[in-house]
Write a structure and sequence with these properties.
The strands form four sheets. The chain has a 22-stranded antiparallel beta barrel. The protein has about 775 residues and is mainly β. Helices cover about 5% and strands about 60% of the residues. It has a single domain, classed as Maltoporin, Chain A, CATH 2.40.170. It is globular, with a radius of gyration of 27 Å. It has seven helices and 39 strands. β15 and β16 form a beta hairpin. This is TonB-dependent receptor.
Length: about 775
């Protein structure tokens, strides 16, 4: 597979070079197109753009991120306001706008919806290589002409098109990790005039690697119950290595052409493939500090656990649009198809070393996921007077998601006379021959059809602009448990009004305000009609096909001020009133483990609210005669409230705050630059039935140094320079009553950390 990827990349780069020589260098298009040198050899520092959208929108171009050489869209988003992550160290997958679960954030690619792996309907932004990005739009409030399932907001990742680049560039380099591992990074992009339109081709091959060290201390009780828990209640210690190793390969293309009659046609495609291995090896000891791996009496080792996962993910989407004058206005038709496929094989082998003969316990799992969506959109715009536009249209989407999870387990006894003999025996030779069975609730098919219609009126002038709109969304879904042969339907519809206004209070300052209704659709695994035994502690979990979406009325109020030609500072206050929260409720029925256990089920129950203050600043220091110095700062205070079975809390895993601060210093006379950025996010607390977790992240520091020549840039980047750690505290309980009474099953302290990563990247423009 890796050989195929390499050949695909080389072929794509060769195609870029062929197109470069096949086309004339002159650009006859009316739209201004950036030449390749502007992207590779910078003349100016990139700042936040001042968006002209009426919905409150922050816009960051690719130049804003690139000097810190982010690998993925997720890495890039670490520098923007209000986006947090709950990922492992060195990773940024599920973007959490306003600190809320990724399920509350809508991720779009070029304004279009894309399926992802998450059962909560989220899309992991580390699936998109940063090299493909033209700009990122943070859309804080919903509008009638976009899908409204975005309670926290929308992240629109806009990829480069033919008008993004005239000419091309190649990138080559590598990354070095603190354990000495080296990973490659290659990319090529080319944009040109072609057949009367604009063509862009791109390819990217990125080695991905993440070596982490974990340690856990487990106790039978917590400090809140026992001040001497560390000595009296100690259970075991676990030391673990966790290494993620893989490659991302992507290809993208776009073509756009304008015709003499005023019509336009565009088509774009992206393909991303990931091959990844996750290898974990852990040892549990009966002592807080000692390490004695002896398998004879007196040894400290209790268990040896090996867990390896092989992951293959492929997602692609193709979108085309045709715009033409029609009925006194302009109509645009869009047709799109998107696919996400995932195949995972996981094997876990655990060995009880406390006595002979040793017992090998193995668990295996295979996961195959196939999620496909097609969509058709129509949007018509009419000019009603000098400053008004009327827009209306329809959106149709069909979705099919097939999930197949199979599991197997077994035991095998092995006798060893020495530790060396044990170490020399591969776990794969432990003698397993397990039969796979379908996991409860794990083999199902979801079919979901949407029909949305919308209409809005927009007024824009120099000082005062506004927009009023409404969207009506209908959803019909059927989910089938293929093991039990049971199907369930779930249909719902929503009216979703929105209103935005913008008022220029001065030449440089403007006020914006928005009110909008939005929603969050239920998780796939919550609506599966299946009973899962011992899923939440010792409690059973029963799906609920009748779940309705959560809905929210939201408000945003902001002020933005232009600083000189390039700088901008903004302040925004937001509030979300969320209804029909989906929470785990007790059915009152006894669970499979007998007295004290229950069957639990997700239900629409209760309300919640989310609020916060967001400040962002990006500006050159021209006012103090330092035009070649750019500074960046954003801070978000985040809060929320929701009631569950155990009392009041914030929305699960919402950080208290997140902030970024940094600078870039350009040295024009030397053709060089350097800069740094520092990021920190606050603690996050989450609570579900059976488990409570508090997460603390260390700070992250990144620096870069670059040297520029006529067509070449060489950049050295260091990230995670503070050896950031992720520290978690787990409270674990067997039953609901135990959780209420604080009768712990286990109290765990876990810490995970990784070392610095050094990148060296060379870019050549042609």
């Amino acid at each position: 597979m890796k050989q195929f990827k390499t050949k695909a990349l080389v072929s794509a780069l060769a195609l870029c070079q062929f197109a470069a020589y096949a086309q004339d260098e002159q650009n006859s298009d009316e739209k201004k197109v950036k030449v390749s040198e502007e992207l590779v050899v910078y003349g100016e520092i990139g700042y936040r753009n001042r968006s002209q959208e009426l919905a409150p929108t922050l816009e960051y171009s690719q130049e804003y991120f690139q000097r810190f050489e982010p690998l993925t869209a997720g890495d890039a988003l670490k520098r923007v306001p209000s986006v947090t992550f709950l990922s492992d160290v060195l990773e940024s997958d599920g973007a959490r706008m306003r600190g809320l679960s990724p399920a509350y954030t809508k991720v779009l690619i070029n304004g279009e919806e894309v399926p992802g792996a998450g059962a909560d309907r989220s899309f992991f932004v580390d699936r998109i290589p940063a090299e493909l990005i033209e700009r990122v739009e943070i859309i804080r409030a919903s509008s009638a002409n976009r899908s409204a399932d975005a309670i926290a907001g929308t992240l629109n990742i806009v990829l480069r098109d033919g008008y993004s680049l005239d000419g091309g560039y190649l990138r080559a380099g590598g990354l070095r990790y603190d354990d000495g591992e080296l990973k490659e990074s290659f990319a090529g992009v080319y944009g040109t005039e072609f057949a009367g339109g604009r063509l862009l081709l791109g390819a990217n091959l990125q080695g991905r690697y993440n070596p982490k060290q974990k340690s856990s201390l487990r106790y039978g009780d917590s400090p809140e119950n026992n001040a001497n828990y560390k000595t009296e209640e100690f259970d075991n210690r676990e030391d673990q290595t966790d290494t993620r190793d893989g490659d991302d390969t992507s290809l993208n293309a776009s073509y756009e052409i304008a015709f003499d009659n005023g019509s336009k046609f565009d088509i774009s495609a992206i393909w991303v493939d990931t091959d990844r291995t996750e290898d974990e090896r852990s040892f549990e000891y009966d002592d807080p500090t000692a390490i004695n791996n002896s398998i004879v009496e007196g040894g400290n080792l209790e268990t040896d656990n090996a867990n390896v996962s092989y992951i293959d993910q492929t997602n692609y989407n193709i979108n085309s649009g045709y715009e033409l004058p029609l009925f006194g206005g302009t109509s645009k038709f869009k047709l799109g198809f998107a696919s996400f496929e995932e195949s995972v094989y996981e094997q876990e082998v655990e060995i009880d070393t406390s006595e002979l003969p040793m017992v090998f316990e193995e668990e295996e799992e295979t996961v195959d996921l196939d999620d496909k969506e097609w969509s058709l959109q129509w949007q018509h715009s009419l000019f009603a007077g000098e400053n008004k536009t009327i827009q209306f249209g329809a959106f149709v989407q069909g979705k099919e998601r097939d999930t197949a999870v199979y599991q197997a387990e077994g035991e095998s006894e092995q006798s060893f006379t020495s530790w060396d003999q044990f170490n020399q025996t591969p776990m794969s030779l432990a003698g397993f021959n397990n039969e796979f069975e379908a996991a409860a609730g794990g083999v199902n098919k979801l079919e979901e059809d949407r029909l949305d219609v919308f209409a809005l009126v927009k007024h824009e002038d120099q000082d005062f602009s506004w927009e009023l709109g409404v969207r009506y969304e209908t959803t019909d879904s059927t989910i089938t448990d293929k093991v039990e042969g049971v199907s369930a339907k779930n249909d719902y519809d929503f009216f979703l009004p929105s209103a935005h206004l913008r008022y220029n209070v001065s030449e440089n300052g403007r006020v914006s305000a928005s009110v909008a209704r939005s929603l969050r659709r239920p998780d796939f695994d919550y609506i599966t009609p299946a009973l899962l035994e011992k899923e939440l502690g010792d409690n059973d979990f029963l799906g609920n096909p009748d779940l309705q979406p959560e809905s929210s009325w939201g408000m945003d109020l902001g002020y933005e001020y232009r600083l000189g030609k390039s700088g901008v500072v903004g302040l925004n206050v937001f509030y979300r009133d969320v209804s029909d929260l989906i929470e785990i409720a007790n059915t009152g029925q006894q669970g499979s483990e007998g007295d004290g256990t229950y069957i639990l089920q997700p239900r629409n129950t209760g309300d919640g609210n989310v609020k916060g203050i967001e400040l962002d600043l990006s500006t050159p220091l021209s006012a103090i005669s330092m035009p070649n110095t750019g500074v960046f700062f954003n801070y978000s205070w985040l809060d929320s409230e929701v009631d569950d079975t155990f009392g009041s809390r914030k929305f699960n895993d919402q950080s208290d705050y997140v902030f970024n601060v940094g600078f870039i210093q350009d040295l024009p006379d030397l053709g060089a630059s350097f800069g740094a950025t520092y990021r920190k996010q606050g603690d996050a607390y989450g609570r579900i039935v059976g488990e409570e977790v508090t997460t603390h992240y260390g700070a992250d520091l990144e620096v870069f140094v670059e040297k520029r020549w006529q067509d070449v840039t060489l950049r050295l980047v260091g990230s995670n320079l503070l050896d950031a750690s992720k520290d978690e505290t787990f409270n674990k309980f067997d039953t609901v009553d135990d959780q209420i009474n604080r009768d712990f099953d286990e109290y765990e302290l876990e810490s995970e950390e990784a070392g610095p990563v050094i990148q060296l990247m060379l870019r050549y423009a042609f």
